[in-house]
Amino acid sequence: MPTDSTSDTVNVPFRILPKLDDGNRFFWTSGADGRLRFLRCQDCGYFVHPPQPMCPKDHSKNLQPEPVSGRGTVATYSINHQPWMPGPELPYVVAIVEIEEQPETRLTTNVVNSEPESVHSGMPVQVIFERHPDEPDDIYLPLFEPRQEAR
Amino acid sequence: MAFGASQRSEVCITGAGQSDIGRRLYRNPLELTLDACLAAIDDAGLTVDDIDGVSTYPGPMGTPPGFSGAGAYEVIDALRLPVSWYASGLELSGQLGSVINACAAVATGLARHVVCFRSVFEGSAQGEKGRASTMPGGGGGGGGIPRVSGFTQWTLPFSAPSAAIWVAMFAQAHFDRYGTTREQLGQIAVNARKNAALNPKAIYTEPMTLDDYLAARMISTPFGLFDCDVPCDGATAVVLSRADVAGDTRKQPIQVESVGCAMRGRPSWDQFDDLTTMSTRDAGADLWTRTDLKPDDVQLVELYDGFSFLSLSWLESLGFCKVGEGGPFIEGGQRIARDGELPLNTHGGQLSAGRLHGYGFLHEACVQLWGEGDARQVPGEPEVAVAAAGGGNTCGCLLLTRRR
């Protein structure tokens, strides 16, 4: 667990946070060890997202959160200029990122640590977590930044 | 339930009506809803005593503010309708899914005359502060910050609270794969504005050029301000009738030749299999499985433009052009003009005539087929039209014919 609570929260923007329950808690707290996790069917290996109680491929109920590499690819994106609500500094990038292990599984997220105009479809990205203090466990929003080797 | 050649004209539209429409009317939304329902019933030459069915989208909802002006119960009670069948809901094949529901009810004999309606007061509800005032954390007023669950937990924490952003990402995917441009997309908005100038109920009627469109401030790339529809207040209603009782009505019935309601990908914005299209793809293809008519037979189209790209997606999905060729198809705007080969959104769409949320397109298709378009009437006494509504995971469409 991270102990330095200042360095990674100082520039955290206002966010509407998810309501945690037994089905989604693993996902939203997964970043505590820097790993992104998805629910995975232990019988056929399919990643199930958003979390569901049954694998849609083989109807197995034997599902467990498993870490993935955190690597992904920008499938599409939009540079948002509209102040809908308090949030990141404008403009910011909203993107749909495909997960390397199973590209049909995607996350709507933000691409950060990059000039908005440099973001493009097909861009290799890597997960980076934005920590929001919460009880009993902090919430970690999975954002993405340009992948190191692609910089 | 049957549509198409073997059971043609089983279900008809016999009346259509609208309330007053305005950017902000500050009137009781149920009053507007009842105005529209009574106008449609009167247009059909019927009375409330003839109505035995009610159908609406989305049913009563407190949020987003102004999204639902009335539910089925409120209308049934206010008009004291002794209904044989009624339904409302959000999980439908788009806003017109409520009409498709009613088609099924009429075709199976559950009801004879169904009033279908959609009512909004988003203009008034958002007030002078605009849309931002309705967003979580954007109201500036007390109370705690809500946590989100269900579908919204996957978008709101990433500061993506608006369908403008979600649809913009689909549009960007289309731009990237097919080379579609803002100049092409802009024709949807420019065409809508031209038509709105001839619609006395439209919200925005001042002229707008492609340069005006391109110069507008960005909302969420590739969407600028004029790619996004304008919230308003107003209600729209139609009466669906069984063909064998439609003779009781005043006007020549419009036949529901076919409906499109399929959704073959995941019911999700970001998990849908093809990010260049949406379930428009499936609803559009589905429409042609129940009829002998072809896209070439259609004389005008009223296609949802909550965001400009959605009209383009419907054009491709319904087969009016090939997938990926929607941009070149609308380029220059001549083809989709009122005097073009496929007039589009002849009332001004939601982009300029106001966000009546789906039903405005159906109403306009009926107006045109009945030849009641006045200054904006499409020439040639059109007999075949498509009305389509929705985007993302909520899409449905109707093929309408007026046979003489």
The total number of structural domains of chain B is 1
What structural class do the secondary elements of chain B suggest? Answer: alpha/beta
Number of strands of chain B: 11
Number of strand elements of chain A: 8
Order of helices and strands of chain B: EHEHEHEHHHHEEEEHEHHHHEE
Distance between the termini of chain B: 24 Å
Oligomeric composition of the shown chains: heterodimer
User: What is the CA-atom radius of gyration of chain B, in angstroms?
Assistant: 20 Å
Describe the structure.
The complex is a heterodimer of chains A (151) and B (404). Chain A has one domain. Chain A is built from one helix and eight strands, in the order H-E-E-E-E-E-E-E-E. Chain A has one helix spanning 25-29; strands at 36-41, 47-48, 63-68, 71-80, 92-99, 102-111, 124-132, 139-146. In chain A, the strands form two sheets. Chain A has a five-stranded antiparallel beta sheet, with no helix packed on it. A three-stranded antiparallel beta sheet of chain A has the order 2-1-3, with no helix packed on it. Chain A is globular, with a radius of gyration of 16 Å. Mean pLDDT of chain A is 93; it is low at 1-7. Chain B has one domain (5-126, 230-401): Thiolase/Chalcone synthase (Peroxisomal Thiolase, Chain A, domain 1), CATH 3.40.47.10. Chain B is built from twelve helices and eleven strands. Chain B starts with 10 loop residues before the first strand and ends with a strand. Mean pLDDT of chain B is 94; it is low at 4-9 and 138-142. Classes of the chains: A mainly beta (151), B alpha/beta (404). The interface between A and B is large, with 42 and 42 residues.
Keywords:
heterodimer; A: 151 residues; mainly beta; five-stranded antiparallel β-sheet; three-stranded antiparallel β-sheet; 8 strands; disordered N terminus; B: 404 residues; alpha/beta; Peroxisomal Thiolase, Chain A, domain 1; nine-stranded mixed β-sheet; two-stranded antiparallel ribbon; 28% helix; globular
